[in-house]
Amino acid sequence: MKETVLSTENLGFTYPDGTEAIKNINISIKKGEKVAVIGSNGAGKSTLFSHFNGLSEPTEGLIKINGNPIIYKKKELMKVRQKVGVVFQKPDDQLFAPSVIEDVAFGPMNLGLSLEEVDKRVKESLELVGMIGFENKPPHHLSGGQQKRVSIAGVIAMRPEIMILDEPTAGLDPQGVEQVLKILNDLNKEGMSIVISSHDVEMITEFADKIFVLHHGKIINQGNTEEVFSNHKLLIEAHLKPPKSSEILHRLQKKGLNVHMKLTAKDASDEIFKAKLKNQNQP
Known about the structure:
This protein has 283 residues and is α/β, with parallel strands linked by helices. The protein has helices at 45-51, 74-83, 100-110, 115-128, 144-156, 174-189, 201-207, 225-229, 232-237, 244-254, 265-281, and strands spanning 4-14, 20-25, 28-30, 34-38, 60-65, 68-69, 84-87, 162-166, 193-198, 210-215, 218-223. The mean pLDDT is 88.
């Protein structure tokens, strides 16, 4: 049985003005899982993610990393942030050095590593994200997709066990989305747990093993992709559009066609074709 690397117990956060951002969050993420937290804008995704490596301190409940509650002291938080890396939604919130190489090296340098080890980590990280050759470029001269990849490289260089990404494909063109997802899948194959937030359900169907649906700061559903995306009523409640393939099959079911819920375009077309053949063969 895989070990739990990140979990929350009755996690809640209320702003000083009394606004409850997240309430009674109970989730469990195991080693090597690809997890998505989905919800509409304002659902509380970014607030929840800010708690995962101690950037925010909960007003209720707790977060555990490898079974140990986060302790909100500088030395202890440094240990947590070596295990849990966060990639922010906007690269501008993360990239601040005058060159790509300096930005990626910032985290490892703060760990007190030797220059040789820092150089090694920077090179390996840039290679993983396909940004070799851009070392001396100013980050603000890069495209949105390139900036996102440099942000990910900076976290990879810290060698975390868990990577948290807030809306990692927001604002990217289809090629940029594909590049980022390939990087995340490659990291996952090496054993890294990946947790992303998004309201892009089409992308999530291609990526996640486990999904949590967040609405008004509460988890209202969880499960694998088929369990979550076959519940159209709940998706509508959470202000999320079902995947196109799932929506088509759902409409066909309502018209009386015997089809099973599928999520990818290929599986959905195969399902419709099988139902069509079955209908044609009926007397």
